[in-house]
């Protein structure tokens, strides 16, 4: 016999915010936590399960970011920028895309440069 | 149109009622496809800067402009970037225009404490003789002077200029060109008369009873409830109605309730609630009879930035039960019976009007087609979504009918291009002010206005 249908199938349970919290998307809290986690990860050395990214690779990616032919680099991920350059016919170098896909889970590699007021 | 094409055996209104009332089936819709997918935004992220829009616009239009420059000034001209310019060398540069205007409203000046300025009241035009034009490419910018009309051009246009750099660092322009008409689309229009009604600026919620009578007359003509059998048989040839924005009036946008105390405004309802209910009833009458495309406008309850997303169907519960109602984006692109429509609700044209010396809406409409871009002033002075991948406002193909809504008066022109393009330019007038709508014939791309004026209390009769 199949599971009886519940009202939570069509109206899923949402996490209730505490009293007195300003209305806003719960997603904001999640993003802040993610940012904090990312900062922490950058400061301390990476966990041993992942191989550390090659400094030559990081240098190549930085040069890709700063090359003006492919447009501005702020606010979009490197892969998005690569694909945009490809569609506009600017022929970005292929090894960059392979590197980005290979290290897709490493935030330092995928890297979306966002101006957050902390820098200088 | 109506009286010329009335059915020959039709009887006038003064004839006795016939035993068997004749019915006129509306011509069936063939070949409709909605092509405004590039204007629909899925997930929106505003954490990007607008530099991407300009970079993509320049990169996307550069090949077309280079081809046009070569065609105009010879195949052997030197195409240079601004960083490669040599003094005194005649060359061609492709870049984005920026017009430095003294009167342009600037938020930084308004909130700057050292100036202590009162915010500038909105002016009809912000042009001044002291405006300057600059050309920017990916890396540098240079001031332009010479054979280029500073007052006429606006920020954000992609141009190719031919000239040379002077000693003082300015570029002396000898000639310039825009992207010109986009490549033509094949014509496969209908062979019999098919009409599309274009109306804009219904202006509901403005608390004026006269405008409502004209709107009701419009609905009655389209649904075939007005006129004798001659008019009804002609109205049966109307295949679609497109409402190009400003369905609600500007009066519904008053925000003085924000400044008042809460206890005074607790029971008041926003004026747009009542107006949307009226809109729903009007659309219900139209939708039972003819397919309707509803585009949002400047004063409608949708987002402010271009491209405006469709109105939500929960606001129109009665009308959205019908499949003939289509809520579409602004700008809107569709293919109807083989004829390509492209149009906006007029915000792009009125923004260019404010920052350019061009006065005629039809002239501005034609100019945007020649510039190859629907709205060059976005995002500078017109709100725009921060695209990063491609600029959907670039015109890649030449539409057959290009319209803009909420113009001060009705104008139309058939434009013929060098590569065989045929475009009908229509400025759809504001219905609440002029009570005029447009009927476009798809067979031969002709257009005529249709006015529903009624006698007001102060008219002599």
UniProtKB/TrEMBL annotation, chain A:
Protein name: DPOD4 polymerase
Entry superkingdom: Eukaryota
Region spans: Disordered: 1-56
Biased composition (Basic and acidic residues): 1-12, 25-45
Cited PANTHER family: DNA POLYMERASE DELTA SUBUNIT 4
GO cellular component: delta DNA polymerase complex
GO BP of this protein: DNA synthesis involved in DNA repair; DNA-templated DNA replication
GO molecular function: DNA-directed DNA polymerase activity
Classification via InterPro entries: DNA_pol_delta_4
Pfam families named among the record's database cross-references: DNA_pol_delta_4 (PF04081)
UniProtKB/TrEMBL annotation, chain B:
Gene Ontology biological process terms in this record: DNA repair; DNA strand elongation involved in DNA replication
Chief location: nucleus
Keyword rRNA processing: no
Residues spanning the signal sequence: none
Cellular localisation: Nucleus
Record domain DNA polymerase delta subunit OB-fold: where: 49-175
Pfam family name, one: DNA_pol_E_B
InterPro entries linked: DNA_pol_a/d/e_bsu, DNA_pol_D_N, DNA_pol_delta/II_ssu, PolD2_C
Coiled-coil residue windows: none
GO CC terms in record: delta DNA polymerase complex
UniProt keyword list: DNA damage, DNA excision, DNA repair, DNA replication, Nucleus
Transmembrane segments: none
Entries under CDD domains matching the protein: MPP_PolD2_C
Domain spans labelled DNA polymerase alpha/delta/epsilon subunit B: 196-410
Region Disordered, annotated ranges: 1-20
GO molecular function: DNA binding
Family membership: Belongs to the DNA polymerase delta/II small subunit family.
Name the record gives this protein: DNA polymerase delta subunit 2
Organism this protein belongs to: Loxia leucoptera (White-winged crossbill)
Primary gene name: Pold2
